Each structure stands twice: as C-alpha cells, then as structure tokens.
Amino acid sequence: MRVLIISDSHGDGDRLKRIAEEVAADHIIHCGDFSTDAEELPSRPMTVVQGNCDWEDKPLEDWWEKEGVRFFVTHGHRHQVKSSFLPLRYRAEETGAQVACFGHSHVPVCEQSGNILLINPGSITMPREFPQPTYAVLERSGNKDVDVTFYNPQGEVVRERGGTFTLPGKEV
Predict the structure, then answer these.
(1) DSSP string across the chain
(2) pLDDT by residue (tens digit) across 58-114?
(3) Residue 171 is assigned to a structural domain of this protein
(4) In whole angstroms, what is the distance from residue 78 CA to residue 98 CA?
(5) What range defines the domain where residue 57 resides?
(6) What is the C-alpha to C-alpha distance for residues 113 and 139, in angstroms, rounded to an integer?
(7) For residue range 11-69, what is the model confidence (pLDDT) as tens digits?
(8) Does 141 have pLDDT greater than 80?
(9) CATH of the domain at 27
(10) pLDDT score at 172
(11) Domain Calcineurin-like phosphoesterase, which positions (predicted)?
(12) In this structure, is residue 172 part of a structural domain?
C-alpha cells in the first residue's frame, strides 16, 4: 500500500497533478484547500475533503480503508488543529481510525498521539513554520508498521519529518 497525502495546494492544480503522477500511489488523500474546480483534481483514486478555502461541495470529513488501516480525513479547521490536536484525535478515535490526515495549518506534522498516527502533510504551495513546501507518502512496511516519508515538490526527501510507526489494534 502506497498513499500520497497532500493538502493546501491552494489552486496550483498543475503542481498537484505532477506530484500525483510522479508518486504513483495506490490512493491519494487530499486534506482540503485544493481551491480549484473538482474536475481539475488528478483523475486518480482519491479521498478529498473540503477545506475552509474550497467552494466545491465535498465532505468535511471522510474515511478510507485499505489492508486493515483506517484513515480519517479532514481539513482540520473545525477541529482547532492550530491550537491542539486533542479534538482531532478524539474524533479519529470515534471513527475507529488508526491514522488521522489533516491540513489547514500548512505545518508538516507526523506524530503518534495515543492510538492515532497524526499526519499533516504541510502545504505544497505555502509552507508555514517550515522552510519548504511538503507532502507525505505513507507505505506499509511490516505487519503493523507504516513508513511515512515527507518530500518537497521536487521529489527530494525532507528528513526532518516522518519515520516508521507501529499502528495499534488491527493487523495490517
């Protein structure tokens, strides 16, 4: 399983499509603020949520599951992610997710919070509190392990974020 996690592309559909093509993931998760018409999104298997800057009618929350790993996807503005991850974590736990993907802050995050792996891929166009734009790729690396690697839009690894994480609960 290889999942591209991306957020806050803010109208740069060409960059989004190029990254989606280069990563060649099994699935794409876009955590909102794509800020384009929906038909301008990559034509690949995707889970897309509406961000606070989107006008397209997309769900505010969604879920996707593969190989026993359940992803909770939201933009994060309704979960106050700029001040605390606790509301996001609780909502993800309520949905039975092991991974919570979110955006909104434009700050790349990858950390375990209780039983939930929190991933904010950052922004591919307008990074904040980080020196470069980023996106993330999650890959299954073991029975319960996943590897999360962050990249800049040129496809170079961003070593300051990511790692290998053991997902609690279900066997993957």
Answers:
(1) -EEEEE---TT-HHHHHHHHHHH--SEEEE-S---S-GGGS-SSSEEE---TT--S---SEEEEEETTEEEEEE-SGGGTTTT-SHHHHHHHHHTT-SEEE--SS---EEEEETTEEEEE---SS--SSSSS--EEEEEE-SSSEEEEEEE-TTS-EEEEEEEEEEPPSS--
(2) 999 999 999 989 999 999 999 999 999 999 999 999 999 999 999 999 999 999 998
(3) no
(4) 20
(5) 2-166
(6) 19
(7) 889 999 999 999 989 999 999 999 888 888 888 889 999 999 989 899 999 999 999 89
(8) no
(9) 3.60.21.10
(10) 42
(11) 1-139
(12) no
Strands, sheet with 135-140, edge to edge from the N-terminal-most edge strand: 46-48, 27-30, 2-6, 135-140, 145-151, 157-166
Take residue 123 and report the two structure tokens written for it: 């922004």
In this structure, what is the dihedral angle of CA atoms 116, 107, 132, 97, given to the nearest 10 degrees?
20
- 47, two tokens: 């889970």
Q: Is residue 53 part of a domain?
A: yes
Q: Return the biggest CA–CA distance within the chain.
A: 40
Q: Taking a C-beta distance cutoff of 8 angstroms, is the pair 155, 135 a contact?
A: no
Rg (CA), the chain: 14
Q: Which residue in the block uniquely carries the two structure tokens 């066997």? A: 171
Residue 34 lies in a domain: yes
pTM metric for this prediction: 0.94
| Rounded-to-integer distance, Cα 59 and Cα 95, Å | 15
